[in-house]
């Protein structure tokens, strides 16, 4: 099975680095070029850099406002981003008493999470 290759945007999200192009030019990160000349970062390189940075836990958070909306697009993005766990909620972003949101905050406060990945800022909270 071939190794997963991440886009520069996905790698930046996972590693908290921006811009990653400088690291490529400096030789600090291994980059694979596609036939079209685009840069991709191998999953093994992401893991190596996460280990160097001491990243323990990357959690994804997805939320929709009602049962009629679908979480699939957010979940697919989070899975492709390489998160280790996904927490979901159904409810308004104005309400802070969402079970998943509170569970996420609790883990962040107890220093169990190094990074939270979301598709859009307003998915976490409206303010």
Task: Please describe the structure with a list of short key phrases separated by commas or semicolons.
2 domains, single chain, three-stranded antiparallel β-sheet, alpha/beta, 127 residues, elongated, three-stranded parallel β-sheet
What does this molecule look like?
This protein has 5 helices and 6 strands. It is α/β, with parallel strands linked by helices and 127 residues long. It has 2 domains: 5-53; 58-123, Resolvase, N-terminal catalytic domain (Rossmann fold). The mean pLDDT is 83.
CATH topology of the largest domain: Rossmann fold
Unreliable sequence segments: none
What's the helical proportion of residues?
Answer: 25-40%
The average pLDDT score comes to 83
Task: Tell me the fraction of residues in β-strands, as a range.
Answer: 15-25%
How would a crystallographer describe the biggest sheet? Answer: 3 strands, antiparallel
- According to DSSP, the number of beta strands is 6
Order of helices and strands: EHHEEHEHEHE
- Main sheet: which strands, in order across? 1-3-2
**Cα radius of gyration in angstroms:** 16 Å
For this structure, what is the CATH class of the largest domain? Alpha Beta
Shape: elongated
CATH architecture of the largest domain: 3-Layer(aba) Sandwich
Integer count of domains? 2
- Determine the structural class based on helices, strands and strand pairing: alpha/beta
Distance between the termini: 43 Å
Counted by DSSP, the helix tally is: 5
The CATH superfamily of the largest domain turns out to be: Resolvase, N-terminal catalytic domain
